[in-house]
Amino acid sequence: MPLPPGRHLVFFDGVCGLCGRLVQWVLRHDKKGHFLFAPLQGKLAEKELSPRGIAPEKLESMYLVVGYGTEQARVLEKGRAILFVGREIGGIGSIAAIFWILPTPVLNFFYDLISRRRYRLFGKFDSCMVPSPEQRSRFLMDTE
Q1: Cβ(74)–Cβ(67) under 8 Å?
Q2: Distant-in-sequence contacts of 95-98, Cβ < 8 A, 24+ apart
Q3: Residue 3 domain-assigned?
Q4: Cα separation of 101 and 66, whole Å?
Q5: What is the phi/psi pair of residue 71, to 5°?
Q6: Residues 86-119: b if buried by 16+ CB within 10 A, e if exposed
Q7: Which spans in the chain are helix H?
Q8: Is residue 46 situated within a structural domain?
Q9: Which of 20, 6, 22 is nearest to 96 (CA)?
Q10: How many domains does the chain have?
């Protein structure tokens, strides 16, 4: 299914409490519907990320495919992905833009610091979140 330009696909750990909260925050604040979502545990993550040398089953990062479905699509991960989401949404999320000047290794250091403790701090679900009927169009189903 071709997507309109300007759509971005967030791959997230579907059983992580922190990741689920981030997805819910984006759903509430992304009034223009720029962001789509798919769990790292799904077939779509394997199809989209593996050819780029990314092993989604490791669940170590959030990945963002900027311009998903276009020839210019590129992948951001960890800190850069989070900052891009905040910057795109605007409002309070645009505060994240001030951290864009930090080097990627510094951003990823802080990302990894939280990521290693995310299940302990924010919980872990037994299964991926189920979107509400209103949200379902924002979640891409797995494709064979």
Answers
A1: yes
A2: none
A3: no
A4: 19
A5: -70, -20
A6: bbbbeeebeebeebeeeeeeebbeebeeebeebb
A7: 17-29, 43-49, 78-89, 104-115, 118-122
A8: yes
A9: 22
A10: 1
User: What's the pLDDT tens digit per position in 82-141?
Assistant: 889 988 888 777 787 788 889 999 988 987 887 777 667 666 666 566 667 777 788 886
Question: Can you read off the two tokens belonging to residue 50?
Answer: 């593996």
36: which residues sit within 8 A by CB, 6+ positions away?
A: 3, 7, 8, 9, 10, 68, 138, 139, 140
pLDDT of residue 144: 45
Q: Is residue 92 part of a domain?
A: yes
Range of the domain at 91: 8-133
Residue at 137: amino acid letter: S
* Distance in angstroms (rounded) separating the CA atoms of residues 70 and 2: 9
Which pTM does this prediction carry? 0.81
Tell me whether residue 140 is in a domain: no
Closest C-alpha among 7, 47, 18 to residue 139: 7
